[in-house]
Design a protein that fits this description.
The protein is of the alpha+beta class and 478 residues long. The chain has 15 helices and 16 strands. A nine-stranded mixed beta sheet has the order 2-6-7-10-1-11-12-13-14. A three-stranded antiparallel beta sheet has the order 5-4-15, with no helix packed on it. Strands 3-16 form a two-stranded antiparallel sheet.
């Protein structure tokens, strides 16, 4: 980006709520059903039907508002947002305009750096157009009426990197709260970006465009970067940016003009006549607040203070609620907090990523991982043997102690036995001994390797090193 310019970005994030039924009817919200099967006269907007609010959807938006420091309005109303589109059978969308459920919150994207949330409102989703049949588009209305919350940020974001950080944190909170699965590929989390640029030092905002159709963090970052550079190029050439809505084409890495940007009056908002205002009591808000779990930032700080973990470790371990829970179950068994973190971040996550499974599907229980770490800490096995035991635990539903016993993998700590092995290897390696005595001390690794080969990796490495150095140094004085 040209250093003479500043980008001003606001994000509108739509999150599908994890209710079993739609927002105004009892139709299923299940993803992947056959097209046009999860529908009824209400979500299709037939004449004479009346919507009934799903109370869980209202509870979920309040939960999100409280988790992001929003004020939750005592009274909130629905509005009709009128527009024609083939996947909107009613010709209008029940949404909110004035008096949204939640207002004026924030998300901290890094220490002392907040992105303000202007509003979070409740609405129904539209259907889906499928463009896979040449010049014909098909309509699937299963998604019509699925409950959404729209989270609208203030224009506090000034880079694509900060936009992705904000979106990542937002998604993490939604998943921690259990109100959205955060799956961008399936469309349960969607992001639109309002972008403008201005000369650095200017107060007035530039003409903004809205970029839609971003279904991954990678696409969000790429689309915002592209649009910032496109607008700067237009201004530098002496032209004016046109206010419009753009679609992001990830394959071509470019934005495509979709339509002129609508203003609020284009939608002819008016209060929804078929739904009463929502009255939210302080008592209900407090009840919902009591159900909010420890959130990622709070958990991360606690992991650093309680378990003395580096910030990086805490960041990884709290990236999901389930992973954090797994870690805490491990450290109920072992007091070696850092070792538990290392094993999870390297060995456990490696398997999870390779197999594309969730931590809840991982075959080694937290208790057994903790017991494995205790075997290392207690000098029962060394690190190399522990890796072997870990691999066997993946294959067999056995405790690490049982595997060590069955495979005879207990560490050799008998000093006399190790001394005899070391002495034999030294006697058989005169050239390497001469190299060591000549100052090539790294050759100690050769001797360690020989001892480990003889003991099949079971000798205690610390004892081996101590005996080797003692015996080799003794030869200096012969």
């Amino acid at each position: 980006m040209n250093s003479n310019y500043e980008a001003v970005i606001g994000l509108e994030v739509h999150a599908q709520l994890l209710t079993k039924s739609k927002i105004f009817c009892s139709c299923s919200t299940e993803f992947g059903s056959l097209p046009n099967t999860n529908v009824c006269p209400i979500c299709l907007g037939h004449p004479g039907v009346l919507p009934v609010l799903n109370l869980h959807a209202l509870e979920f938006i309040i939960r999100m508002g409280l988790a992001t420091g929003c004020s939750v309005n005592t009274q909130s109303i629905f509005a009709r947002k009128n527009y024609f589109y083939p996947d909107l059978p009613k010709g209008y969308q029940i949404s909110q305009f004035e008096k949204p459920v939640c207002e004026n919150g924030y998300i901290e994207i890094e220490e002392n750096k907040n992105i303000r949330i202007k509003r979070i409102h409740l609405e129904e989703d539209a259907g889906k157009l499928i463009h896979e049949h040449g010049n014909v588009s098909l309509v699937d209305v299963n998604r019509c009426g699925v409950p959404l919350i729209e989270i609208v940020s203030e224009p506090d974001i000034h880079s694509s990197k900060d936009a992705v950080t904000y979106l990542t944190k937002l998604r993490q909170i939604l998943i921690y709260l259990g109100i959205c699965d955060g799956n961008m590929e399936e469309g349960s989390l969607r992001c639109d970006a309002n972008i403008s640029v201005r000369q650095k030092g200017e107060v007035a905002l530039g003409t903004r465009t809205e970029v839609k159709n971003m279904n991954s963090f990678k696409n969000v970052e790429a689309a915002i970067k592209h649009e910032i550079n496109r607008q700067i190029g237009i201004i530098e050439e002496g032209n004016k940016v046109v206010q419009e809505t753009l679609l992001w084409n990830a394959e071509l890495n470019e934005s495509i003009s979709m339509r002129g940007k609508e203003q609020a009056h284009d939608y002819r908002y008016f209060p929804e006549p078929d739904l009463e205002p929502m009255i939210i009591s302080d008592e209900w808000k407090q009840q919902i607040k009591s159900t909010i779990p420890e959130l990622p930032d709070e958990k991360k700080k606690r992991f650093c203070s309680e378990y003395k973990l580096p910030k990086y470790d805490a960041e990884i371990l709290t990236s999901s609620r389930e992973l954090a829970n797994y870690y805490e179950k491990v450290v109920q068994v072992t007091q070696n907090y850092k070792a538990a973190s290392n094993w999870i971040m390297s060995d456990v996550l490696k398997i999870i990523n390779e197999r594309k499974i969730a931590i809840n599907e991982f075959s080694i229980s937290a208790e057994n991982l903790g017991r494995l770490i205790n075997l290392i800490t207690g000098n029962k096995i060394n690190g190399k043997i522990a890796k072997k035991v870990f691999e066997l635990m993946l294959l067999e539903n056995k405790t690490p102690e049982d595997i060590v016993q069955e495979k005879k993998l207990l560490q050799i700590t008998d000093t006399c036995a190790i001394e005899n092995i070391v002495e034999d290897i030294i006697q058989k390696s005169p050239e390497q001994v001469e190299d060591y005595l000549a100052g090539k001390e790294k050759i100690i690794g050769y001797f360690v390797g020989k001892v480990m080969a003889v003991t099949k990796g079971k000798a205690n490495p610390q004892i081996v090193n101590e005996i080797l150095i003692k015996k080799l140094n003794k030869k200096r004085h012969i």
